[in-house]
Amino acid sequence: MKEPKGEKEVKERIKKLRSEIARLRELYHVKNAPTITDDVYDSLTKELNALIVQFPEFADPNAPENRVGGKPLEKFEKVRHSAPMLSIGNVFSKEELFAWEKRNLKLLPVGSRPEYFCELKLDGLAVSLIYEKGNLVRGATRGDGLVGENITENLKMINTVPLKLRTPFPARIEVRGEALMKKNVLEELNRQNEKKGLPLFANSRNVAAGSLRQLDPTLAGKRRLDFFAYDVVSVEGAEWLEKIATHSGKHQILENLGFAVEEHTKKASDLDSVFSFVEKISEKRDGLAFNIDGVVVNIDDTKMAQSLGVAGKDPRGLIAYKFPAEKATTRVKNILINVGRTGALTPLAIFEPTLVSGSTVSKATLHNMDQIEKLDVRIGDTVVIEKAGDVIPKVVETLVKLRTGKEKKFKMPEACPVCGGGIEKRAKGSEVGSLTSAYYCANPKCPAKNERYLEHFVSAFEIYELGPKILRRFKDQGFISDAADIFVLKKEDIAVLPRFGEKSAENIINEINAKKRVALWRFLWALGILHVGEETARDLAGGFGTIEKITNAEREELNAMENIGSAVSESIYRFFRDKNNLRFIEKLFKNGVTVEKEEKKKAGKFTGLTFVLTGTMESMGRDEAKAKIIALGGKVSGSVSKNTSYVVAGDEAGSKLDNAKKLGVKVLNEQEFLKMLS
Ligand code: IVH
Q1: Which residues surround ligand 1 with Cβ inside 6 Å?
Q2: What is the pLDDT of residues 373-404, one digit of tens each?
Q3: Rounded Cα gap, residues 559 and 543, in angstroms
């Protein structure tokens, strides 16, 4: 993240970041507010730490980022931990993991070869349990790391917290582990809440924390939490136990004593094998019964780990390999306008490049003015961006608390930024009276429209050889002025252009010729009729069968079509009454384009069903799945709504799957989908 320029700005930014971090911590640790995600917190802390490294004069040991956990609540008895409950440092890449080892090797005796024990980083809340003579006598939260809350009665309601230990047990032992709520328990809870009209919980950790930090143990019991043990901190009265020399050994003892110990662990002799465990877990992550946010890598030899000591609040002997954040914070450097092929002016946020879900994001569409107003996003704002399972990044929130007062509100320009032409406001989308409106460049000859239109046209025709750069060059050369010219391009003309050759020219021409014969729906889609996307084009093609019939269709005929509302039918009708458009279609035909007749749609077994595809399937790609659904009479849509019949969720399904669950839409896994197809 780029740092603000002057000292003064840096100081102000640090102050703002600290107060926002303190607020998030308070919400998270004290109020158990469900809106806070670790990712946002981590992202801001990372920015702050980077600033402190650069400007050490602003370091402050009592600043909120240097505190562990939260203030204990007032209502529970406060208990002091026998040894502080610390936190764990994070790494996000293989390089950082190796750097951690390198730092440690410098501190260890020459020739040391640490071995590692890997376990899951469970996303719940840390809990300490003390047993005397085998009986649970005290259970506490982490609190601020030194002082926690006595929540023994609530913890007793968790089935996987043993009330008595199995023999042989030591006279006194303190066990630490994670209390959490399994994913299916949260889903069930949310289903019930939905029925009762209660708010839904955003994440299982907050519900788990909330359930354990309220005063009624029966409520805690109803929440069906789980507990996994991962550490033994102190023992008395058992010589044999005190001698456990490894972290993996501790896990074994915990199991023997009757604790649930999470089973995905690995003893690794080096970091390469640690890393392959991380990769394996990252693949399995979605399928696990509970949420995790990474892998904890422990130096297995307890003495060696302890000898390294603590850096700040993180023991050096273990590290958390965190999975890529699905949310991050960044700053909006600018908001630009993109002119689409329909002339729609779409605001585009330009960010400080930021890593989200493993790739760098530097811009995201803000869709329209309504969205900008809803998010209240201004130039200079710090925003939360998200990529979830989907590839397209989006802005989900503005952190208004981080404003300096210098942020600038975005205003739609009064003229098209490309051609300077006039701008008009029109309803957007196909619904009449639809609430969202968009701004359009009114100039039919706007070059931006033309260029975007060419790109759209070739993609609808599947002429993959003609990417945007090549199209622009052909246009600059004067080889093409409109899309119809593509079909009379000459190999000789192309071959002489710098960086082209005989071979690539031939490839281009061959592909164009191969795509001259085109399905009716593709042809309609390629025309770029306002409001006619891929789906509507398919509907029209299925309903009318030939381009002639569509060209001559009356308003009423178009309107009578299922799925086509009046704004859409009006737009289609007008399109085919425009002389320029008809001339263009004629030119396409003259240049060799032929349109296949569309078979009248026969009813198939998917007729009337709408599918949404998300994630990746093993047996087929998305295009193939789509073609199969359509061949059986079904429809494929890009977004989940209450009209969706099924969401087909492959691996690493993203927000669409979440939406399906929220809306109660039926979800099919790959196997179920294949069965339906056959
Ligand atoms: S060991 C020095 N092991 O992560 C701290 N912690 O970021 C020793 N956590 O407070 C903790 N899974 O709530 C450990 N397998 C695991 C864990 C784990 C989750 C949590 C724990 C801790 C936090 C630190």
Answers
A1: 86-88, 119-122, 126, 142, 178, 230-231, 296, 315, 320
A2: 999 999 999 999 987 544 678 899 999 999 99
A3: 12
Pick from 441, 350, 539: which is nearest to 451 by CA? 441
**Ligand 1 closest atom vs CA 86:** 2
Question: Which residue among 87, 120, 263, 323 has the greatest number of ligand 1 atoms within 8 angstroms of its CB, and so is best to mutate?
Answer: 87
**Ligand 1 centre and the CA of 631: distance in Å?**
51
Three-class secondary structure assignment of 255-299: HHHCCCCCCCCEEECCHHHHHHHHHHHHHHHHHCCCCEEEEEEEE
Atom of ligand 1 nearest to the CA of 120: 15
Element at 178 (helix H, strand E): strand 172-180
pLDDT of res. 632:
87
- Rounded to two decimals, what is the model's pTM? 0.54
Q: For residue 413, give Cα distances in angstroms to 6, 351, 424.
A: 31, 20, 11
Give the confidence band of 130 by pLDDT, cuts at 50, 70, 90: very high
pLDDT in tens, 211-253: 998 888 888 888 999 999 999 988 887 777 778 899 999 999 9
Q: How far is the CA of 470 from the centre of ligand 1 (A)?
A: 53
CA 249 to CA 261: how far, in whole Å? 12
